[in-house]
Amino acid sequence: MKQTQTRAILKRLAIGLIIILGLSAWVPLPYFVEVPGTAENLKHFVTVDGKQDNHDGAFMMTTVAVRRVTWPRLVQSFFEPGSTLVSREELMGDNNSEAYDRIQQYYMTSSQNTAIKVALDLADKPYRIDYRGVYVLSIDDESNFKEDLAIGDTIYAIDGKPFQTSEEFINYVQSKHVGDKVTVSFERDGRRQDAKEMLIKMRETGKPGIGIGLTDHTEIAMDAEVQFDTEDIGGPSAGLMFTLELYSLLTGQDLRNGQTIAGTGTIAADGSVGRIGGADKKVIAADRAGATVFFAPDDTKDPETNLTNYQEAQQSARDNQLAITVVPVNTVTEALDYLSQLKTAEQKKTEIPLAYPSLFCPAAALSTVR
Predict the structure, then answer these.
(1) Cys-Cys link to 86, which of 90, 171, 190, 336 (CB 3.0-4.6 A)?
(2) Which residues contact 343 (CB under 8 A, 6 or more apart)?
(3) Is the distance from CB of 191 to CB of 86 less than 8 angstroms?
(4) Buried b / exposed e across 68-79, counting CB within 10 Å, b at 16+?
(5) CB-based contacts of 263: which residues, under 8 Å, 6+ apart?
(6) pLDDT tens readout for residues 326-339
(7) Exposed (0-12), middle (13-18) or buried (19+): which is 292, by Cβ within 10 Å?
(8) Which CATH superfamily is 127-220 part of?
(9) Does the keyword Amino-acid biosynthesis apply (predicted)?
(10) Which sign does the torsion angle of CA 22, 27, 30, 34 carry?
């Protein structure tokens, strides 16, 4: 009798343990895994005056997929090419998921705006820059506005006075005293609101402030109508590829000669291309999508690896035996020059000049040509 009872108890304990282990396997851990995402044809994301790019080939933006880690996914990540485990703090900093997403959407919108400006400059077409205010990027815990403002808000006036630069806004605030009350007018999701609170003493400067991190919010006004359909994608790293796609649409030029060109890199107002994260993963995504060329920034080195994005992508292409040519760029003009030489080489069926000796070399051999 006792043996029967003991077996029944052990059986129930075993079943309970199996259930607990099964459920815990799907409980998210405080980590994320970054893996190669997708390479997206920009024909489907960008239009000018309602028209898509109709030239053969494609310009492609590349992404990194970020997945919440469970125990099964953690094990899977060890066998997935290009995967990197990161903590929640490394990925999001002090932000919650909603704030992180808002910041990423701002970076995406900002990169699109800058890409429009640079493409218009390259195409020699007129435009106007309209100032919208300052964009709220962060809010200090000590700020008296922390219950009123949210990351992603645009402040367009203070004490009823509009301003034309962030410097003008900051100077006005610093002309006040700690403890003074100011009224901030801001816009959120198309709705305008006001909030009145006291200024605090900023830790960094000792001067009065609202207690926010900010950046200028501008928009480009022009004759053409540019539309982006990137609601589910965030971050600034598609700036270079947006610029190339827009320049082709604005001028009607066929820049690709039928080839599939992928790449990554931020875009600055002067046309310079900046460093991004995950170049090693994005080149894998580009290769999987059939791209033959991958543009990568080649200026700033990561302090830990001492590698530029170009070197990271090149190393990933070599390690994963990718059949893709990784091309270093520091400006959008360099990318356009490369495409021009590529087109000429295709048309003439001759080799590219030594400025780009790696053009027809497989990615696995790129370490010998730079």
Answers:
(1) 90
(2) 254, 255, 256, 257
(3) no
(4) ebbeebeeebee
(5) 59, 60, 61, 62, 240, 241, 244, 286, 293, 294, 295, 296, 327, 329, 335
(6) 999 999 999 999 99
(7) middle
(8) PDZ domain (2.30.42.10)
(9) no
(10) positive
What is the chain's length?
370
Structure tokens at 194: 């006001």
pTM here is 0.81
DSSP 55: S
Give every CB contact of residue 315 below 8 A, 6+ residues apart in sequence. Answer: 280, 307, 367
What's 38-64+225-368's CATH class?
Answer: alpha beta
Please state, in angstroms and rounded to a whole number, the distance separating the CA atoms of residues 289 and 102.
Answer: 28
In eight-state DSSP terms, residue 225 is -
At residue 229, what is the residue type? D
* Known catalytic residue at 237: yes
Known catalytic membership, residue 138: no
- Of 111, 282, 316, 358, the active-site residue reads 282
E strand spans, 191-347: 191-198, 200-201, 208-209, 212-222, 226-228, 260-263, 266-267, 273-274, 293-297, 325-329
Domain locations in the chain?
A: 38-64+225-368, 127-220
Nearest to 304 by CA among 277, 282, 283: 277
Measure CA 74 to chain center: 24
How do residues 245-302 score in pLDDT, each as one tens digit? 999 999 999 999 999 999 999 999 999 999 999 999 999 999 999 999 999 999 888 8
